[in-house]
Amino acid sequence: MNPIHLVIIGDELLAGKRQDKHLQRIASTLAKRGADLTTCESIRDFPGAVTETVKKNLAPNTLIITTGGLGPTLDDLTREGISAATGTGLRFDESLWANLKQRFERRGRKISDSSKSQALVPEKGSFFQNHFGTAPGLVFECEDFPNSLVVALPGPPRELNPMWDDQALPFLAQKYQWPAPPNRILLRFIMAPEAGIDEKMRPVLVNYPDVGLSSLIRIGRVDVTLSLPSDFPNSIGVLRGIADATEDKFPKHVFSRAESMDTEPDPVSDLEEVVMQLLRERGQTLSCAESCTGGLISKWLTDYPGSSDVFWGGLIAYDNSVKANLLHVSEKTLAEEGAVSECTAHEMVKGLLTDMSTDWGIGVTGVAGPGGGTQEKPVGLVYIAVGNQKRIETKRFEFPGNREFVRELSANAALWILWRRLIGEKESGT
Amino acid sequence: MNPIHLVIIGDELLAGKRQDKHLQRIASTLAKRGADLTTCESIRDFPGAVTETVKKNLAPNTLIITTGGLGPTLDDLTREGISAATGTGLRFDESLWANLKQRFERRGRKISDSSKSQALVPEKGSFFQNHFGTAPGLVFECEDFPNSLVVALPGPPRELNPMWDDQALPFLAQKYQWPAPPNRILLRFIMAPEAGIDEKMRPVLVNYPDVGLSSLIRIGRVDVTLSLPSDFPNSIGVLRGIADATEDKFPKHVFSRAESMDTEPDPVSDLEEVVMQLLRERGQTLSCAESCTGGLISKWLTDYPGSSDVFWGGLIAYDNSVKANLLHVSEKTLAEEGAVSECTAHEMVKGLLTDMSTDWGIGVTGVAGPGGGTQEKPVGLVYIAVGNQKRIETKRFEFPGNREFVRELSANAALWILWRRLIGEKESGT
Question: pTM of this prediction?
Answer without folding.
Answer: 0.79
